[in-house]
Every structure is written in structure tokens, then in C-alpha cells.
Amino acid sequence: MSRPPIPDRAQRQAHFETMFRQAADPWRYRERWYERRKRALTLAMLPRERYAYGFEPGCANGELSIGLAGRCDRLLAGDASEAATALARERLAACAHAQVLRQSVPHDWPLDARFDLVVLSELVYYLDAAERARLRECIATTLQAGGDLVACHWTGAMEAWAAPAAAVHEEFDAAFAALAGRRVAHYEDGDFLLDVWSTDGRSVAEAEGL
């Protein structure tokens, strides 16, 4: 059975805007152990201890962003929801090196920037095929040599139109193969997929000369 069509960009933005205006933490990022554990695993999977410039589109209310800010010299976070962006700015108010913008990706991707870390958490399966292809092009353009991409996606019940998490991650496998990169870390359980791709390709120990 084919999936129903993906809502257009305006419809999706309106949906998430309504969610964040009704509740500051609609998925209970702060209180649920599932969410706190997932953030801890995401941060633990980062191959480098420090990054020069990280980018987290789809940052929601900034709960993962605050952890990423502790690992990056500079951090850019963004969300398509005006309400979510305001919440993320409050969460990161003490982090002078972090910037939060209202932006919708891939449409508003900062193509003039150069990142050594991009983090996509439960975002990409909401995009249609053309948007996902454009997203991969944006990553290829702005990810520095040796940079890392982290993607984490829920594998449980979703909106019927959302792309499967496994398919999204397979697309990244192919994209990094074309960049002479590869998947360097993988975690999977009954709830989500968490993968790291790099254009460097070395393990953490190899990067330290072991």
C-alpha cells in the first residue's frame, strides 16, 4: 500500500507551530527518560570531543542544542516554528557562542557556512523526496572535509505519510559513499536508529594515532 502524499511545507510548518504554541515541550523532551537517554546516546556517539562549528536544524525547543553547545566552539540551531525558535533561544541564552534562527531546511540552509558537524534529529522523514535530495546536496556543499553527520530517527508509529527511518538512513549511506565517506557508528534499538557518517572515515582510536 502506498503512503499518502506528504503535506506541503506550509501545512507542516502550521502543524508544528500549533504544537509548540499549545505546549512548550510537546514531546516531553525534558522529563521522559526515553528522550534524555536518546540525547545522551547522541552526544556519546559524536566521534570528536570538540567541533569548531556545528549545525542543528530542526532544533525544536533546544534540549539537544544545549548539549551540542557544550561540544562546539560555535553552534547554529534553527527551527521552522517561530514558537520553537523562541524557546530554543531561551534555552541557549547563557551560550554566547550559540545562535538560533528561524529557518526551514533545506530551503533556508546557510550555503555560505562551513560546518564540521551537522545533527539531524527526528527531522528528515518529514521531508518529501525532492526536499531530502536537496538536503543531501546542502550537506555535501557545507560539510567540511573530515566533517561528521549525525542522524537519529524514531522507528515506531509515525504519521502515515512520513518516510521510513531506515530509508532515510540508506539515502545518507549512498550520499556519503559518493563523497568517499562512510558510516562510522551505528546504534539501533526497538525505538530509533542513530548513525554517524564521516568524510574522514577513521575510527576514534585511529584518529588519535592508535
UniProtKB/TrEMBL annotation:
GO molecular function: S-adenosylmethionine-dependent methyltransferase activity
TM spans (from-to): none
Any Pfam family matching the protein: NodS
Any one GO biological process: oligosaccharide biosynthetic process
Record's signal peptide: none
Source organism, top-level taxon: Bacteria
The protein's name: Nodulation protein S (NodS)
